[in-house]
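*** Residues and shapes ***
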Amino acid sequence: MAVQLENDLFIRACFYRKTERTPVWLMRQAGRYLPEYQKTRAKAGSFMDLAKNPDFATEVTLQPIDRFDLDAAILFSDILTIPDAMGLELSFENGEGPHFAKPLKSEHEVKQLRVANMEQLHYVFDAVSSIAKALTANGKQQVPLIGFSGSPWTLACYMIEGSGSRDFSTAKKMLYERPDLLQTILDINIKSVSEYLRLQIDAGAQAVMIFDTWGGLLTTEDYSKYSLEPMARIIRDIRSNSQYDAVPIILFTKGGGIWLSDISKSGADVLGIDWTMKLSSAREVINQSTSKSIAIQGNLDPSILLSNPVEIEERVQQCFEDLSSARSEENNSLDGHIFNLGHGISQLTPPENVAALVSKVRQCSADLRMVTA
């Protein structure tokens, strides 16, 4: 049964419907820059204990909604839960990021890999249900809830490397020397991500997002084969069941602007844009590449939030003025846009700068719509 939303701006924008202002949410909006998050994290004891406890996950998911009144909530979790459920044993070292105790270093280890056990991910689905319930009052949900997963290629990078890396040279070495092994990993990841996202929707997510954090490391040919096509397969798999038609799918490749024409044919409803590409240029590329109305999401540089409210407001204004200059024959050029950062918010961001950003997005996007109406 469809959920009634008190604020449906985000969903309308995802499907390129008219909105009175631009919805805004931020990647990593629940996190270390918030003092309330730090308190909850201390109570939990560790990042994994925080992520695997539905009550704690609900608490931190709602913190930025309560503080900034954003237009969408995103599940608090991690992109690496899937390989953890495959038995690779995920942990987070202080100051060092994610680490797998059992990375895929040999052919034997790859051959032993199996699709993630969804029972071991039940804490994620429980958190989705808990968050949706917490957002609901008087029969209406305050804002939509976004579920997510890492892309098959991004997951494979960590699974092969065993930890974070600047260039994931071990993963790329496998791509060049043993593409058959990499394809085996990707095929398993495709099946895992498809089921994982479907179950998040079943649990109460109103939209899902695929984070392709490391697709930008690849050559054009390799991106198409090892990153974009696996994501397109996931989208086709989800879309094969009409019960998910009302759930928008967001695809974001960091550093993927050069491939936007190809990405626009993936089947995604929304394409994330990072700060290396102007929104007006993105809109024009998409319009020239496909007849489908595809929304865009982005694209402020997260580092701008380390500056000051005056600079932030100026950059937001520039963002909207640029997008409003894009040609649109049928719609207001500002429609079909979700304001976001070009990547995740920095842990060093002052919360008051986020408040200034959100306020300016609302004011500027509403005012420009009146001018262009």
